[in-house]
Fold each of these.
Amino acid sequence: MRTYIIRRLLLMIPTLLLLTILVFLLVRFIPGDVVDAIEAQLESFSPGTEVDREVVMRLMGLDVPVHVQYGRWIGVLPTPDPLTGESEFRGLLQGSLGRSLFGHFPIEAEILRRLPLTIELGVMAIIIGLLIALPVGIYSAVRQDTAVDYAGRTVAVIGLATPNFWLGIMVMVFPAIWWGWSPSMKMIPFTEDPLGNLGMFLIPSAILGTALAAGTMRMTRTMMLEVLRQDYIRTAWSKGLGERAVVIRHAVKNALIPIVTVIALQVPLVVGGSVIMESIFNLPGLGRFLLDALNTRNYPIVSGVNMFFASVVLFNNLVIDLIYPYLDPRVRYK
């Protein structure tokens, strides 16, 4: 096991290196640049205002070639301070995700400040999704081709086909039109009002969790049907074991490995969904932070947040792989 973990960690190094290149370059392909964003904002407040593009680019460190910017970002080249002229190594290799182009604050500090909100949204969404998917998927498999099975499959198909951003907008718009009610848009800290905080996250996490539940429910039903046809399950039935013992003790555990894989693959979906849900429901998490940075072409924030998300997904996949031997003793890593 130790050898396997070391090998996986070493394989992450070239993967993360490739990710740094992709994340750094792709954001540069977005139409427009940071100076265009500044000009657009100034034009809305003071029409006719001109911006000295060369000065702005120099102050933000964007007046050098892309490969030099990349070297500074990962920390192999020194980054000069535009005001003092002093240079220092400050990049990924030094544990820094960079500094914002506006405000010059460290990005990792802002990520840590906003991360609990995104974690809360994601964890609640996954819990809600599992509370829906596992019971419905198991029951649909045990009662195959019954009305409950058909209803569960229909709801799953609808959940897969319904975009969560559309559902979130509908929840914001129609209750306000019909009943004059809309979800709270004011941030309620958990330390001040735990119930109010959970209530604020309940609707966006339920929308996101419902979308996650559809795929998990289908996989749960499929794997349960496969396991229930195995010889050892028929043996358990023939020994006179009750339905609960056969299903829960024997079938569910052996069907969990592919289900756990599906749950692990939902982490990127939670990350993408958090951007949408936080924007619709005005939650100041990492998703909203990323979207605001995209609108202002704040390259270091976009690159830093994406790199953080990518690292989380990679380590999430490693943790899921390490869980497999505990679910199935036949799985061994060398």
Amino acid sequence: MSTMKNRMFAALISVLCVLSLVAGFAPHDSYAENNKTLTLICRSDDVTLAGMRWKLYRVGERSGDEFVFTGDFADYPVSLGDMTEESVNAAAKTLESYAVADSIAPLAQGKTDSNGEKLFDSLGAGLYLATGKVLQVGNVYYVPSALLIEITDEGAVFDYDAYPKFWYATLGSEVIAYTVKKVWVDDDAASQARPVNVTVDLYKDETLEDTVVLDDSNDWEYRWVELADGYEWHVVERNIPVDYEVSIDFNETQYLIKNSYVGASTTTTTTTVITTTSGTGSSVETTSTNVAKTTSTTTAAPPPPTTTASGGGKIPQTGQLWWPVIPLSIGGVLMIVVGFMVRPKRKADAE
């Protein structure tokens, strides 16, 4: 009976050894753990934007040194370009426009609290898009800019603080003119792939307002006027030409849709021209930037450095969960040693 117990104990130790080794070397995917948090902070020295509505989308993930759009955003011909701040901001605006036009459901949404903060929790690793809605306070309206944020799987628990960029203006009764213009980024040979026209949808407060056709006859440009201000406008190009990527840039009243020729190559560099926000009335641009700060909830040490992506640019990011590998591996080895030490002893032959 004692020999049977020893054998069962040795078998149990062997199973635990195998499980420990497998756990030690298996990948630890923190996206499944969903233990990250993201806080959007919408305030400055002059104003706290309480009640601003935000939506959060998981739009992609890192693949080596590049990013791959996934899920509802997988089929959009959008690129982060050379990973400069300008190209990342343009990609964020472009993805926001398609999210509005195609009524993509967000991963989470909500309003900022009395401190101008909105917390999103239970997040996993990935590339996220945060989009805000215009907020009117008295006779002033505040327009937030969309931003892309990378949450990595480094660290057990991590909080991520982001400061969205926004501009604001005083409401007035003057007529405001808006413009959408189409620009082609290619060479003479590639221009043969251009279509003779493109179709653009105009969205006003997430509702389709108009559909226009841009071509040579109107110099690839359309202009419309609005008697009242304070609306959110989005422009979306439909039926994007083959071998082209799309990027949308904008200021308060001008929307620039750029098609960059990709051709047969696998990579492309998109140069985005950022126009300065001149404002309407007393409109000014805040000093807040689209760069986020990170702080750890488990240690007072400084946050990990951002990872350089292809092209030399960076995207704000957080924390790979590698710390369990070493102790689990050591535990597996120790259990193997113990298993050999407790091998059942055969009974001596009494005869």
